[in-house]
Amino acid sequence: MERLLSRIARNRVVPFVLRKNTSPLSSSTISTDPSKEAIVSSAAIINDPPPDNSSLPPSSSSGATGSRRSRSLLKFGAFAGITSAVGTAAYATYAYSVDEVDQMTGAFRALSKFSIRDDASSLEKYRAMLYSAALQVPAKIIELYIDIRRSIEDHVRGFTEPSSDKLLPDLHPQEQHVFTLVLDLNETLVYSDWKRERGWRTFKRPGVDAFLEHLAKFYEIVVYSDQLNMYVDPVIERLDPKGCIRYRLSRSATRYQNGKHFRDLSKLNRDPARILYVSGDALESCLQPENSVPVKPWKLENDDTALLDLIPFLEYIALHRPADIRPVLASYGGRDIAAEFIERSKEHQRRMQEQKQHGRFWRR
């Protein structure tokens, strides 16, 4: 019992004494109606349950939860917008050219740049300003897309397109009748081989010297290779010390398409009716197969005579100068041109002999 009374005294008297000793001497701090203070019984002090937290005001955790939800929704909206924009740009890049995109979006972009009449009311000007501001963001995005795509395509075109629309200088007026003989390099004139003990070595095809020296009298000879010029230049300098080859074209002059470098004869600045392209891979490496003269690829065979066998046909073309070489090549129908030309020449000589004999018979 004494312990209980001492506890009641501490709870009631000690706080009152502390307040009286620590508070400043001001009448405003003294209670004017001390009798109205509630008296707490000792049993209530001992037996009172803990305070109910549910009656307390809501904590700041609910506000933090709401802000996190707002940030999540904002992130989701930004992600969805960026994804849709990227998807739209990807589809437009795949389905339309940059000029088509520019043309289709021109009217929409023009809406963001319309002018407001001077006699318009304040409400109309305000509406027009809001409308223009709402269209400016997508219009600027479209213009940025078009500018970036043009820049990228121009940059890529430098690697995929020939370095110039005129790869060769203009032909001299006195040589307008001369045919252009375009020759591939690897497996046509030379063959490059690598071995561990000696590294890379380049070999000349049998008959290549006689082939170049003889046909240089009739043709404008051009070497057109898909290799880099750091390889082409030193090989041709050693291959052609007499200067039979007038021009040399390397990889920068080819057209890159479907993962392969193609020779584009339309960029040679020559009449396509007077161009012949000789290659061991002619039909697969040239964009103009109608001008191609296929030969057997050379891979170090010692008994190869493909270049020498082709000389009679090429000399015949240079001397007779057909108006268009393409129907002449098409008449061989994929057969070996050198062998077929020999057969046709023999057949022509046989017919000429028969006509001569027939003429002698009638003269008798």
UniProtKB/TrEMBL annotation:
Residues 54-67 have a biased composition (Low complexity). Residues 46-68 are annotated as: Disordered. The keyword Protein transport applies. Keywords: Membrane, Mitochondrion, Protein transport, Transit peptide, Translocation, Transmembrane, Transmembrane helix, Transport. It is found in: Mitochondrion inner membrane. The keyword Metal-binding does not apply. Its main location: mitochondrion. CDD domains: HAD_FCP1-like (cd07521). The chain crosses the membrane at residues 76-96. InterPro entries: FCP1_dom, HAD-like_sf, HAD_sf, TIM50. It is a single-pass membrane protein. Residues 174-317 form the FCP1 homology domain. Pfam families: NIF. Essential component of the TIM23 complex, a complex that mediates the translocation of transit peptide-containing proteins across the mitochondrial inner membrane. Component of the TIM23 complex. Belongs to the TIM50 family. This is Mitochondrial import inner membrane translocase subunit TIM50. It comes from Platanthera guangdongensis.
